[in-house]
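Worked example 2:
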Amino acid sequence: MKQYRDAGEKYILTVLLILISIPFWLPLLIGVVDKYYFTPTRTIEDTWDIDIPAGFRQIYHVDTDSFYAKGMGYTLYEVTEAEESFVKGFSFTKESSLEDNTNEIISDLSIPKSYCPPFDEFYFSLQKYKKQSGSHLVVLYFPDAKRCFFIESYSWDSPPQGYESKR
């Protein structure tokens, strides 16, 4: 092994090795941050300005994983501890057009039946629409089933028929 005459050569070689290795470890670091920091819960809370209660435990999530933030997301929570303040501003009226559009998204995402909303039960619903981005959120809370569904659609030009903004 070659002997180095001074510390300067060793320092330059170390810096060069670090710079050359950056393209190899940087994607790994980005992937770890993306997986553990940008969870579906955090993304929903940040995007829609909703506080998901601590008593909600995520049991299912799927999305279309689009780089350009176009597509759909579907997240299901089991409600282990309900908070009445969470449903403030929710509607408690059954809406067949909302159910039809939700079922269409469920079909498009191939959601297993065991993770689908039980529309034959009573539920609360909340809809949000972001005009500037064309994104839309539907929250369906089924208190008897102790489940809460978050269905997102990103970059719609306008909400589909039956999905109306309720601000």
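The chain has a mean pLDDT of 82. The first strand starts at residue 56 and ends at 63.
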